[in-house]
Amino acid sequence: MKEKILEYLNKGHDYLSGDQISSHLGISRQALWKHIQDLKDAGYDIVAVPHLGYRLESKPDRIFAFEVARGLNTKFIGKKIYYFDYLASTMDLAMQLGMRGSAGGTLVLAESQTKGRGRLGRSWFSPKYKGIYLSLILRPEILPQASPILTLLSAVSICEAIKTITALEPQIKWPNDVLIHNKKVAGILTEMNAEADKVNFVAIGIGLNVNNDKKSLIAQATSLKEQAGAQVARVLLLQELLRRIENNYFLLEDKGARAIIEKWRSLSLTLGRHVKVYYQHKHIEGSAVDIDEDGTLLIRKPSGLIQKVSSGDVVHFR
Ligand code: BTN
After folding, report:
1. How far apart are CA 51 and CA 20, in angstroms?
2. 82 and 52, same structural domain?
3. pTM
4. Are 83 and 17 found together in one domain?
5. pLDDT digits (tens, 9 = 90+) for 64-101
6. Are residues 223 and 77 in the same domain?
7. Of 7, 31, 239, 298, which is the most buried if we count CB atoms within 10 A?
8. From ligand 1's centre to the CA of 118, what distance in Å?
9. How many helices (H) and strands (E) does the chain have?
10. CA distance between the termini of the chain
11. Are residues 289 and 236 in the same domain?
């Protein structure tokens, strides 16, 4: 009902009387008053003027589930959204929901995380109302060893969404860091529940620095606000991201991994560069020549030999 009240208040930008709203929505004046109080508590600035009625002055900067769902227009991504002011990690809940049989496309959103997880056992800085922290459950019909394509697909989708909303041009550092001007703006963590020959579900975790101030970030990180020089509407960006993920998911189903890899290549900052990759307490240096459909990076060593690396940290040289 709150969504409907907001929708109606949004439409006319002028005052609407309590009678008008309650009869339009088929609720009592008292019920309307209660909903308006709840919306005010949630940060919606709704003014009430005697004899005139209610007017929506401003909305809070929140990624409430109903704001994200409104006008999303996806087929399955985000049809069910769980929203929290804070969580330890959206990954924990997504994995639990996956185990309990939640549908593919189910989304977990948090305004902040107290134990946000990054790759390779790192933590993910998740300050309140500044970023987008989400986990998305997918149930692809693929073999477990093909699952890295979903991480590549997510990285591509993040780049596309950022470009559409901000006109910035992000790039991907292998395997899946999204960078703008060589600084990290988003990261992806994928966790999977699978059997030997079947993926039960995958939880894709995405962390995006959106409106973080430069001074709150480490030197190697950036935010869209820092790069664009202005606040970015998180709801619009999140909606675009979900639509891009869905479109790329359908592309993967229709055309196969190659179509995603092609997009990934065109956004890659790593391919063609001289790199050093740190993995499992070792490192290898050489030229990053390509990636496989399973997301493996191919490095040409000075000896000319090609070595495959499936996970690690890349440092770019030239
Ligand atoms: C990385 O680059 O190391 C991956 C970072 C992934 C962070 C996101 S934030 C939402 C989701 N929940 C988590 O705990 N981690 C992922």
Report:
1. 12
2. no
3. 0.93
4. no
5. 999 999 999 999 999 999 999 999 999 999 999 999 99
6. yes
7. 239
8. 5
9. 9, 14
10. 56
11. no
User: Is there a single domain that holds both residue 194 and residue 278?
Assistant: no
Q: What CATH number should be reported for the domain holding residue 15?
A: 1.10.10.10
Domains: count for the chain: 3
Q: Of 47-51, 164-168, 254-258, give the lowest mean pLDDT range.
A: 47-51
28 and 95 both lie in a single domain: no
Mutate to test the pocket of ligand 1, among 114, 136, 202, 206 (most ligand atoms within 8 A of CB): 206
238 near 68, Cβ under 8 Å? yes
The torsion defined by the Cα of 270, 272, 276 and 282, in degrees rounded to 10, comes to: 90
Q: How many angstroms does the Cα of residue 22 sit away from the middle of ligand 1?
A: 43
For the residues of 164-185, what is the DSSP string, one character each? HHH----EEETTTEEEETTEEE
**Spatial CA neighbour of 210 closest among 190, 181, 230:** 230
Q: Domain limits at 172?
A: 65-267
Same domain? 184 vs 49: no
Nearest CA to ligand 1 atom 15: 117
